[in-house]
Amino acid sequence: MPGFRAHIIGSSVVGAGYGAAAWYLGGMPPSTAALGAGLCAVSGMLPDLDSGPGVPLRESVAFAAAVTPMLMISRFQEWGLPLEAMILAGAAIYLAVRFGLSWLVENHSKHRGMLHSVPAAAIAGQITFLAFASSEPLHRYYISGAVVVGYLTHLVLDEIWAVRQGLFGPKVKKSFGTALKFIGPELWPNLAAYALVIVLGAFSAGDAHWGERFAAMRQHMHHAAHYQQYYPQPTHPAAAQPTYQPVYQQPQQQSWQFRR
Fold it and tell me: Which of 24, 42, 71, 193 is surrounded by the fewest CB atoms within 10 Å?
């Protein structure tokens, strides 16, 4: 199977193409495109959380613990948290991911289990979507998609490395089909994975609905302010009165009157 370096190189190349396409073809801001490219590159480490103690587990957990609080800065601002509360919340999330997730993976995961699966990639994307709150809905889809693409890149590389060239043609290893899969061999990990997909999907759908609704309201307010800037309305009630009188209200001289 490909090593840690091969996964990082592969996901970095895909991430660079993902960010360049979003910036050059999709009109994404350069900073947002660069963030998506970086997340795609480092997300190639996430499936190896189940590889046991070593460099992949240590680096993957450290990355997730450091990035998750930063992605939630906009979410903290939406909740109206003061700076001190943001720092405390970020520290709590870091500790929970750094030690809680590490303990959970080391004690309740199996190598090439459901962490190496398409539902796991969907879960990583949904968590990113809920953590990253942006005023632009398209940016949220792009950032969460970057994590999914990087995750799937790791799984695809595992499947490619499971096919090798033999003396009489390509030979398929026993590990082929154990990475890019939808269902694992054990029941409870499958149920847990799909339960998370359904629950996080429901939360993501509701959050996306409200986010797009608020974005439409902000766009409407922006257009109203732009119109008010170029077409100001009178503020004083007397100024709103017309400066002329219609013809039918103007005094007219009667035809039967005569001059002396």
Answer: 24
